[in-house]
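Q: How do we represent a protein-ligand complex in a form that can be generated token by token?
A: Start from the inputs.
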Amino acid sequence: MQDRPTKLKEYKTYIDGKWCDAASGKKFQTFDPYTGEPWALIPECDKADVDRACEAAWRAFDKGQWPAMTQTARGKVLRRIAALIEQHAEHLAQIEVRDNGKLISEMAAQTKYMPEWFYYYSGLADKIQGAVVPVDRPDHFNYILREPVGVCAFITPWNSPLMLTSWKLAPALAAGCTVVIKPSEFTSASLLEFMELVIDKAGIPPGVVNVVTGYGAVTGEPLVTHPRVAKVAFTGGTATGARVNELAARTFKKVSLELGGKSPNIVFDDCILDDAVSGAVSGIFAATGQTCIAGSRLLLQESIHDRFVEKLVAMAKTARLGDPSKPETQVGPVTTPPQYQKVLSYIDIAKGEGAKCVLGGGPATKDEGGGKYFVKPTIFTGVDNKMRIAQEEVFGPVLSIIKFRDEEHAIEIANDIAYGLAAGVWTQSVKRAHTMAARLRAGTVWVNTYRAVSMTMPFGGYKASGLGRENGAEAIDAYLQSKSVWINNGPGGGNPFIMKTASSS
Ligand code: TXE
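Then emit the structure tokens for the protein with TXE bound:
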């Protein structure tokens, strides 16, 4: 990775088990955010390719081997996927870094952990079962079948491309669904490599997993409106999520959305100070703040505010900016040019609103370790929760510090926001930990830790942070639907003009 080849690498996309170009023959470039240079060419799919992919996924679902395969056999395929990811984790991480500029240490940790999603859902594949249900009609035998929903469309973002794909793909395949994936136009390469090194080798029938690379409006919209698609799973920005939800609703597709956040990271004066300082840094400067769960609102109890800020600034100042492919780098570039502009514009907004910049506050120069799209770790104090910098998602290394008096005040500020993805609490009081966990309106609450994830724990948002949950046993339900079967073993007849209820005959 450190010697970056200058020749553009050309990728093909993967539809119906075959490698192909877009029907139009068009391609677009993908860029290395550290250097700003293009490094690969990706097929620019449009409606024609989406049609091909959705029809292939439909054939594989309707007539193909995948849903007809036994659940045990499908579970085995998922275990093969997991083993192949283990073999190629390092390489896949390097491709992710090249495309999204996140740290190799972070991306390698993600790709090494990804197999666990496939192992976990492989274990659940043969535990998908219906039920025999008693009804109050004599001679009836009733049961419930749990069936896959059908063709699923995944729209994924650029910040953790493969991990967020795995969160969707593992339960969908375990359920017996077929899928069409549209990765972000900024980070398509890692998914195409994943298709080649993992999916193509895992013994999955053609058409079960397809990829359409391209832009949101041109590729994403035909996909989320396609008549063959039964379910849309989206991760991305809240505005795009709302659009996807509206489009999908027109044809009554099932939808799950994992959207943005503005998560409160709440520090009480009874915390272990050094742990909380490290947790605050991890909440906002890890992943250059480009994570939906960023602890971008740091709520500090008044009594420790000044001491905490001093320690936090001291620690954040030592963050090493630089080449994300080097293991020693701690803060990398912002991934995309529009995102870079957005982060800088929010720094201006915060200054204009009267917040006090106590660290950073602009682009990082080459001397400071910066490359093409670098923003210095930035901390604002004196933030009021009503300010835009406190209410809107920046998705960058910009922290807003807000003071609070007591538990009640902390809860009021924390919940006074449109989002509800995650929250952090730093305290040594068990009582306070449970009280806060119960009262915070967020899909995840971390106490004395931050940014911990596991395939076994449901993940998703309250309010504008999303719909539905990924991960955990319940995530598989998003890819299944129930069918009620009534078998009458008794006599027919009865009054044909009234509904057959317990009291009618
Ligand atoms: O994401 P988009 P963008 C937030 C973050 C960021 C903002 C915008 O605040 O600043 O979103 O980022 C596809 N129909 N998050 O613009 O647009 C698109 O091609 C169908 C939070 O990069 O949401 C990509 O594949 N699809 C987040 C995916 O949607 C469409 C991660 C996400 O892109 C589409 C990323 C359309 N009309 C950004 N328009 C998180 N929750 O982690 C776009 N897409």
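The mean pLDDT is 96. Residues 244 and 298 are 31 Å apart (CA to CA).
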